[in-house]
């Protein structure tokens, strides 16, 4: 469920650059918009956005609940390593977290 919370925001949403010239018109027709501040939502940008969202939830979560309603503890040393977003069967972008 933790990953679904992040990725689910993309479901039936139109991802746009916050500076898109058509933004006001799209808001007027009630489109479900997901805005990316000053950048186009490329596959590379989406991979990092998903990584950041999941990593933040992992850092603050004590338990993760499965679809079956079972709660599992999140180990404190669990770290997200990478996120890969596929465009086609042969084209993808991957964001790899950094060891700071």
Describe this structure in words.
There is one protein chain. The two termini are 27 Å apart. With 100 residues, this protein is of the alpha+beta class. The chain has helices at residues 2-7, 23-28, 43-60; strands at 14-17, 33-36, 63-65, 71-73, 82-86, 92-96. It has a two-stranded parallel sheet. The protein has one domain (2-96).
Question: Which properties best describe this structure?
Answer:
100 residues, alpha+beta, two-stranded parallel sheet, two-stranded antiparallel ribbon, 3 helices, globular
List the helices and strands and how they pair.
Layout: H1 2-7, E1 14-17, H2 23-28, E2 33-36, H3 43-60, E3 63-65, E4 71-73, E5 82-86, E6 92-96
Parallel strand pairs: 1-2
Antiparallel strand pairs: 3-4, 5-6
Overall pLDDT = 90
What string, H for helix and E for strand, traces the elements in order? HEHEHEEEE
Strand order of the largest sheet: 1-2
Estimate the global geometry from the Cα principal axes: globular
Total of DSSP H or I helical runs spanning 4+ residues: 3
- Strand-residue proportion: 15-25%
Class based on secondary structure composition and strand pairing: alpha+beta
List how many beta strands DSSP finds. 6
Low-confidence stretches: none
**Biggest sheet character:** 2 strands, parallel
Helix content range of the residues, please? 25-40%
Quote the distance from N terminus to C terminus.
Answer: 27 Å
Give the radius of gyration. 16 Å
Count of discrete structural domains? 1
